[in-house]
Design goal:
Structural class of chain B: mainly alpha
Radius of gyration of chain C: 22 Å
Number of domains of chain B: 1
Oligomer: heterotrimer
Strand content of chain B: under 5%
Helix content of chain C: over 70%
Number of domains of chain C: 1
Largest sheet of chain B: none
Number of strands of chain C: 0
Largest sheet of chain C: none
Distance between the termini of chain B: 19 Å
Shape of chain C: globular
Shape of chain B: elongated
Bound molecules: zinc ion
Distance between the termini of chain C: 46 Å
Largest interface: A-C, 62 and 73 residues
Order of helices and strands of chain C: HHHHHHHHHHHHHHHHHHHHHH
Structural class of chain C: mainly alpha
Strand content of chain C: under 5%
Chains: A alpha/beta (388), B mainly alpha (49), C mainly alpha (437)
Chain lengths: 388, 49, 437
């Protein structure tokens, strides 16, 4: 009898170890996987976010900041992506700019993986793939698929309710790890508050004119396929939306930033710095609830039969047909809108202009694919490669 | 700093589960359940996830 | 594609039924159902077989913090109980209020409402104050089944009560609606429905007890027990919860598990009786095992369901229902989704639902408040039945679970009607939100 108990226990322990090790290994590797970024011809300096806030030194939340300075003096623009690391079109657009943009006037500051901890996290319960791959001319480039929120390995525990600084609005406990709720942040607060604080410091110290925060949003979410802008950015946002519609033929409407909803970049940046904030949303069907399996293919092509059926019942907030919402369209919109916002700003305040060339537009990316703008790290100069 | 206490709490809980697993002599289902609950705790303590 | 996903769903249900037929426990059956769903999905590579273990392991993390909260809170209450504190409080309550039944019932209702309202979890109410309140209700001559019923309904309401309502927080976070203005739309129905529940289920004295008999029936309390020995641990707990609310930018974020651990240490230190904390904790974990396992397995189940598309199919089915039918079906869909997914239900069914209702002119905040009255009911439904099982556990009711659940029918029905009416008339009830701000 005793023998039997021991045998059963041994079998159970072996199964436990098999499950834990085989299942845990993938998660372990994802957290430690680095994406090589090839700094393009326009990159003049690469610094770290912690250079602007001591509180990030030595933490996983610290992340690379790419600076592209023009020969002529002008204004400054900050571009942030992966604020939500499960909305990868923003990061892809930012990486295209880092690898290809050349600045003629003013300065472009790009943070491609803003919530770095979240990009090394996964979303329990939601069954995402751990990675996704983009086809290029030299093979496949692999990216981590992150989570909306920072990893509890880096910020634990969650409060029982998150109290926003400084307005004291009550937010969901999970939003303490959401870098689009922790703005404007504090130097010694929670780790994610230190991340947003460092970005606020960049904007205040460098006198940044324009900040663009790039996202993706569900097709069933009313605030999708749009530019979210507070009162002071509305003019530029409206002009940018009208121009891309007329010149490039894609839609993106303007949503005013709600005054009563705290912690969001498009609200707090404008309230706590001179900078004009913009938040870009492109539809990402992968994040919708009523969809088929959460596969890598679906993440990239955005095709789903359930959403198609719901679109026919007019329950989506964007046009949707058999072609889905491919990643090329999403990244293309982000690149075009960002460039158009810079152009509209330059027209209004010429001495603070930021003039950029070399960034592909919507039609280029839809035609050539996202991957054709990434350079092969194997062929690039060692000093140009940054792992993040 | 508070985070350290959470690893201590997790470790304490893991020890209690293992202790119960060792003491359990008859109920095979319970033995399996102790180990199932242990999965996320062990991986958190090892800082895998 | 829906055919393929439907087959995977069928495989999961079959695996569950087969496991139950083989007399396996709910937890093991759910685990096997998750594994079967994962294998079913792997056959069509959604997700691939190599990812199956990763999905199971990752899913087990979904509610890791809830496991820590449950464990620490229960150990805390076990210490209070072991030290004689629970019996002490019940003795006093019965002595003062035995002949003022309505006041006693309302007072006990408020006591259950507070911890859940502050933490957003009905389970915390039951784990912290459930046992003493159950004993007090018993001494007021209420049979155990009705005691369990009162605890279940009021604990559910406590989770919905402001200031912290986790379903509403998940919904507002997922729909980008501010989590403000919920005080009145949630507070008023919770108080009215709670009062109704305790009076309907508790006003009639069923067991023929007298005051003297009740006093005699109560267990002995250690001689050195006193009010402050009972109160100090609770002051530590509520103090640490409130301190962050009052000084959010100066007081560190402790989190519920640590708050309960500190309170447990305080309770252990002031106990008049020596307590072996290790064996007590060990036995508590043993008692909690089914609940802890359920939480872990529900996370795995949720992950497999999402990765295979089963979750999306269910969500799609809800959203595609015609409006009138949809609103009527909420009476069933919302509680059942909670029974299967617990808090995950708010994301799966709730988020698309609120987007849809909002877009056709319903007032989102009031509609969310109405929905979150319905969700706690599902915490009594299998397979998880978290709050239902806890209610039964702390009230020491030993008979059929279904008989217990049936005795909640009248408050259940009323809560359902109120919740659905709040959704239907959300636009007209909008003033409740305005008055809250
Ligand atoms: Zn986002």
């Amino acid at each position: 009898m005793m023998r039997r108990t021991w045998v059963i226990k041994a079998i159970l322990v072996v199964s436990f170890l098999a499950l834990t090790i085989l299942g845990g290994l993938g998660l372990y590797e994802q957290r430690r996987f680095d994406i090589p970024i090839v700094a393009g011809p326009g990159v003049t300096k690469v610094v770290k976010l912690s250079d602007y806030s001591q509180g990030l030194k030595g933490t996983i939340a610290d992340t690379l900041v790419f600076i592209l300075e023009g020969k002529e003096a002008g204004g400054k623009a900050l571009i942030m992506a992966n604020t939500h690391a499960n909305e990868p079109e923003g990061m892809l657009a930012a990486l295209i700019m880092i690898e290809n943009a050349v600045v003629d006037r003013g300065t472009l500051i790009i943070i491609p993986q803003f919530n770095h901890s979240a990009s090394r996290n996964t979303k329990p319960g939601d069954g995402y793939p751990l990675y996704f791959e983009i086809e290029t001319e030299w093979g496949k480039k692999t990216f981590r698929m992150g989570n909306r929120d920072a990893s509890p390995l880096d910020q634990w525990p969650d409060p029982d309710v998150y109290i926003h600084y400084p307005e004291k609005q009550l937010l969901s406990f999970i939003d303490a790890r959401n870098t689009n709720r922790t703005w404007p942040g504090r130097p010694n607060g929670l780790l994610m508050e230190r991340v947003t604080f460092a970005a606020m410091e960049i904007m205040r110290r460098e006198k940044v004119d324009i900040a663009v925060d790039i996202h993706g949003a569900e097709t069933m979410f009313p605030v999708t396929n749009c530019i979210v802008a507070p009162e002071k950015s509305l003019r530029i946002a409206t002009m940018a939306a009208l121009t891309v519609k007329a010149k490039e033929g894609f839609d993106s409407h303007v949503e005013p930033s709600p005054v009563g909803f705290r912690g969001l970049s498009h609200r707090e940046i404008g309230d706590h710095a001179e900078t004009l904030p913009f938040l870009l949303e492109a539809p990402i069907p992968f994040l919708d609830q009523p969809t088929g399996p959460k596969t890598e293919k679906f993440l990239l092509d955005g095709k789903d039969p359930f959403l198609l059926s719901l679109a026919r019942k007019k329950k989506l907030f964007v046009p949707y047909d058999e072609s889905g919402w491919p990643v090329e369209k999403r990244v293309g919109q982000h690149c075009s809108l960002t460039m158009e916002i810079l152009r509209q700003h330059a027209k209004r305040v010429p001495d603070r202009a930021v003039e950029v060339r070399g960034v592909p537009r919507y039609a280029d990316i839809v035609k050539n694919g996202v991957g054709s703008y990434f350079h092969d790290p194997a062929k690039a100069e060692r000093s140009k490669i940054y792992l993040n | 700093m508070v985070m350290i206490f959470y690893y201590v709490i997790s470790a304490f809980l893991a020890v209690l589960l293992i202790w119960n697993f060792i003491r359990e002599k008859k109920n095979v289902e319970d033995m399996a359940l102790y180990l199932l609950v242990l999965v996320p705790l062990v991986l958190r303590i090892l800082r895998v996830k | 594609m829906s055919g393929q996903i439907g087959i995977i769903l069928g495989v999961m249900i079959l695996a569950y039924a087969a496991a139950k037929a083989a007399k396996l426990s709910v937890e093991i059956s759910m685990f096997l159902s998750a594994v079967a769903g994962g294998i079913g999905g792997a056959l069509v590579r959604t997700p691939s077989f190599g990812q199956l273990f990763r999905h199971l392991v990752e899913g087990s993390f979904t509610y890791l913090d809830v496991i820590l909260v449950f464990s620490t809170a229960t150990i805390f209450m076990a210490i209070i109980s072991e030290s004689g504190g629970v019996n002490y409080v019940v003795r006093a309550t019965v002595r003062y209020f035995y002949n003022k039944r309505v006041i006693a019932l309302l007072l006990l209702m408020i006591i259950i409402l507070i911890p859940g309202a502050l933490t957003g979890a009905g389970s915390i109410s039951l784990l912290v104050v459930g046992a003493p309140v159950a004993m007090a209700l018993g001494l007021l001559g209420i049979p155990k089944r009705r005691v369990a019923a009162i605890l279940f309904i009021v604990a559910g309401l406590s989770a919905a009560a402001p200031p912290v309502n986790i379903w509403a927080m998940i919904l507002t976070a997922g729909t980008a609606i501010p989590y403000v203005g919920f005080e009145l739309p949630l507070g008023i129905p919770v108080l009215l429905l709670g009062t109704f529940t305790v009076l309907v289920l508790g006003l009639r004295k069923q067991a023929a007890t007298t005051f003297e008999k009740a006093l005699k029936g109560m267990p002995e309390v250690p001689a050195k027990m006193s009010w402050w020995r009972v109160l100090i641990p609770f002051l530590v707990f509520f103090g640490s919860v409130l301190a962050y609310r009052i000084w959010p930018f100066r007081f560190p974020v402790l989190g519920l598990p640590l708050e309960f651990t500190l309170s447990a240490v305080a309770a252990w230190l002031v106990s008049p009786k020596k307590i072996n904390i290790l064996t007590l904790s060990r036995d508590t974990v043993k008692r909690l095992l089914p609940l802890l396992a359920t939480i872990v397995v529900v996370g795995m189940l949720q992950q497999v369901m999402t990765a295979t598309g089963v979750r999306g199919l269910l969500s799609f089915a809800v959203i595609s229902t015609p409006l009138v039918l949809l609103i009527l079906s909420l009476a069933v869909v919302i509680p059942v989704s909670e029974g299967v997914l617990t808090y995950g239900a708010a994301a799966v069914v709730g988020i698309p639902l609120i987007w849809y209702l909002d877009s056709i002119g319903f007032h989102a905040t009031v509609a969310i408040a109405g929905l979150t009255l319905l969700w706690p009911l599902g915490d009594g439904l299998p397979p998880t039945a978290l709050i239902g099982r806890l209610s039964v556990m702390v009230s020491e009711y030993k008979e059929s679970y279904w008989k217990f659940l049936r005795s909640t029918w009248l408050p259940w029905l009323l809560i359902t009607i109120v919740g659905i009416l709040m959704i239907v008339f959300s636009a007209r009830l909008e003033f409740l939100v305005r008055w809250s701000m």
